[in-house]
Amino acid sequence: DETGGTGGQSAAPGSGPIKVGFSQLGAESGWRTANTESVKASLTAENGIDLTFVDAQQKQENQIKALRDFIDQGVDVIAFSPVVETGWDEVLQEIKDAEIPVVLVDRTVDTTVVDAYVTWIGADFEAEGTTAGEWVTVNYPDAKIFELQGTLGSGAQVDREAGFDTIVGQQNIVGKASGNFTRAEGKAAMEAALQAYPDMDLLFTHNDDMGLGAIEAMEAAGKKPGEDIQIVSVDGVRDGLQALVDKKFNYVVECNPVFGDQILDTIKKVYAGEQLPRETIVFDQAFDQTITQAEVDARAY
Ligand code: GZL
Fold first, then answer.
1. How far is the CA of 137 from the centre of ligand 1 (A)?
2. In this structure, is the dihedral angle defined by the CA atoms of residues 57, 60, 62 and 64, taken in order, positive or negative?
3. Are 252 and 128 in contact (CB under 8 A)?
4. Which of 184, 243, 259, 269 sits CB 3.0–4.6 Å from 248 for a disulfide?
5. Is the ipTM of this complex over 0.90?
């Protein structure tokens, strides 16, 4: 992750709605759906935003096209959640040349373009991995771990893997595969892993959706999720926490997707040319099987 800039372009504040181009990476998971709902609920006309929202179906080329369209449309601010960390230098330079400030949302970028974005808002992915790893080390120190990874090369995958592996130690990890953050691909990856690593007794999955797919694969193979194979997950969407109540997940590290209000506030400050912190970390917590059905039912997403 390179330097985030300081202060956006000075635009004439108060001159009508702020034109915002938002490139969302996809709709691959419950997390992403909740994040999109939060963004759309905050970036509204009544909040002074003229929003153009484009879903890239998890394809980087679609995001790059949307970003170039935003430049052509002459938006005031660009916000985007990059599907992977690299491959953005050219379009980020084009945006910089067009003097359009960028607010990075959720996922991170690794770019050589200096001051490519004004600020980044998201979760501390490495801390999420560390939290998961610490729980495993305390509760299942001798586990034979299989790791279901998110979209390879995404900031969430890279950093969760780094945080987790550093704590548990590579020697305790029997295998890894990517399920691309989706339920279907998580199920398929787990079906293969159960054949390849029959002695695995703990799954660390980078998100709930892949973990839910893995449950289907385990049950089809006659394994009891949460018992024969412990499951540690990240996100904390409703279906993931329900699996915790059902004793099929054992530990869930939250990654909060509901920060549309913070994105709105940041965009208004960028538009007004205010100084902003390089990054804003969204608060996360963690849940174990002491969670109650009432707590799950009360969750917003
Ligand atoms: C994390 C986010 C990840 C979620 C997945 O902030 O980028 O992408 O953990 C989602 O569910 O697909």
1. 24
2. positive
3. no
4. 243
5. yes
